[in-house]
């Protein structure tokens, strides 16, 4: 069987990747690190590392997954630093009273979810973000993190249990099945 010669991807294909993948990578980064500026830094770092290895890419269609994996690995290394984590503020933000609803209720729920995700260990956070926000399958998540399917399943179970404890019963979290949790605040199939 004749082998088809592969070609190196072009600079234009990298530019296309950046424009197409930025929103998704940024959203994933924000959920991983919980801070807008850090999320932008994380995406830029991942894309810079992707560009450094661009000449080795054999299939430009797989470059988005490659960049996402670099991003998760970079975030994990950031989590290991002692300087990463909680940041002091002058005032503790007020939480709305239980049952109180206002025009910003959906936004507050999303902020609560981001804060809850920040309390998870790095691997559990990565699994939840990739599975329920990026809509990756167990196998795709395992490949992105370089772990087994069983590790993804066990980390998902532990993470959802912890999120239920943090968020309470008023927030509907996905079961460990095909349903996913969207960034708009509810489960979808």
Fold and architecture overview:
Helices cover 59% and strands 2% of the residues. With 189 residues, it is mainly alpha-helical. The protein has two domains: 8-82, Rna Polymerase Sigma Factor, Chain: A, CATH 1.10.1740.10; 104-189, Arc Repressor Mutant, subunit A (Orthogonal Bundle), CATH 1.10.10. It has a two-stranded antiparallel sheet. A hairpin with a 5-residue loop joins strand 1 and strand 2 (187-188). Helix 1 (11-33) packs parallel to helix 3 (63-80), helix 5 packs across helix 6 and helix 6 packs across helix 7 (149-167). The protein is globular, with a radius of gyration of 18 Å. Mean pLDDT is 77; it is low at 177-189.
Mean pLDDT: 77
Report the sheet with the most strands, covering strand number, pairing sense and barrel closure.
Answer: 2 strands, antiparallel
User: Please, how many domains?
Assistant: 2
Q: What is the tally of helical segments? A: 7
CATH fold naming of the largest domain? Arc Repressor Mutant, subunit A
Question: What's the CATH architecture name of the largest domain?
Answer: Orthogonal Bundle
Quote the beta fraction. Answer: under 5%
């Amino acid at each position: 069987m004749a082998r088809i010669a592969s070609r190196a991807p072009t600079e234009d294909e990298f530019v296309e990747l950046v424009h197409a993948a930025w929103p998704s990578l940024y959203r994933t980064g924000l959920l991983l690190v919980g801070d807008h500026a850090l999320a932008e830094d994380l995406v830029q770092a991942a894309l810079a590392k992707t560009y450094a290895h661009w000449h080795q890419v054999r299939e430009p269609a797989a470059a988005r997954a490659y960049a996402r994996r670099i991003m998760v690995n970079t975030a994990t290394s950031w989590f290991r630093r002692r300087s990463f984590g909680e940041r002091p503020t002058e005032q503790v933000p007020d939480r709305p009273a239980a049952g109180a609803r206002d025009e910003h209720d959906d936004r507050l729920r999303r902020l609560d979810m981001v804060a809850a995700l920040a309390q998870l260990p790095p691997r559990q956070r990565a699994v939840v973000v990739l599975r329920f926000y990026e809509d990756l399958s167990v196998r795709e998540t395992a490949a992105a993190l370089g772990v087994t399917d069983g590790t993804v399943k066990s980390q998902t179970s532990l993470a959802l249990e912890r999120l239920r404890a943090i968020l309470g019963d008023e927030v509907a979290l996905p079961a460990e099945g095909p349903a996913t949790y969207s960034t708009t605040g509810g489960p979808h199939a």
